Amino acid sequence: MNSKASNNISEQKFQFSPIGIIQSPYQEKFAIPRQPGLVSAAKGQILLQNEANNSELLRGIEQFSHLWLIFVFHGTLAQGWKPLVRPPRLGGNEKMGVLATRSTFRPNPIGISVVTLDSVETYLEAKKQQAILHISGLDLLNGTPILDIKPYIPYSDSLADAQAGFAQQAPQASLVVKFSTIAMKQLNELQQHYFDLKLLINQVLAQDPRPAYKQGKVDNKIYGMALYDLNIQWQMYSLEQIEVLKISQHNVHQ
């Protein structure tokens, strides 16, 4: 490619429209696992839209167990980006170049995530077809715009000898999660309306979703996290244990 053509490409702007929207239990950034697959009980749906809302686009996709999602970090767009960020895996104390991390604050706010494909569904709503992908293990905010979907190919996408620097090993989800008497009663009343709710809460909290600088430390703060339309209040009593104090329904948009 000659330099003139290269310069022309570097000056171009590209515009994309989402092909779908994520429905996710995560209503806010806090408590979303830092990578996909860490919380298998996190189930959601991709609702295809506009021209992509066509079952023909999904023909054969059920042959694959996992999918790559290319998406927009819509929840942090307004905050812009910086060349240096503080990865949580380094305790939030050491700066790295943004392109050496998976920070949400990027020059182009685009992310990738691998999820499990549970099933494919198509139904009619108001005489219009709606195509849906049911997925799990997701780490995406509710309402995330999806730009593209690709099948996960193990022989090319999983490299046994790959080196991952400071993130070579998966984080340890070692915290024990217990429920207070009140929270357990509330959970029992809600379980029938929310699939695997107890497992979801357990898996999210076992990761210690607090800010990186607080991990490995005990504090007395009562935290709240929004899953579905629920507010889950919890507290870390020791380095090994978290207790869920209360589970209540609320309007997350208020």
Summary of the model, kept short:
With 254 residues, the chain is α+β, with helices and mostly antiparallel strands. It is 13% helix and 31% strand.
Description:
13% of the residues lie in helices and 31% in strands. The protein is of the alpha+beta class. The protein folds into two domains: 150 residues, Elongation Factor Tu (Ef-tu), domain 3 (Beta Barrel), CATH 2.40.30.70; 78 residues, RelE-like (YaeB-like fold), CATH 3.30.2310.20. The strands form three sheets. It has a six-stranded antiparallel β-barrel. Strands 9-12-11-10 form a four-stranded mixed β-sheet. A two-stranded antiparallel ribbon has the order 4-5. β11 and β12 form a beta hairpin. The termini are far apart. The mean pLDDT is 90.
Number of domains: 2
Helix content: 10-25%
**Rounded to an integer, what's the Rg over CA atoms?**
20 Å
Number of strands: 12
Number of H- or I-type helical stretches: 4
Strand order of the largest sheet: 1-2-7-6-3-8
- The CATH architecture of the largest domain is Beta Barrel
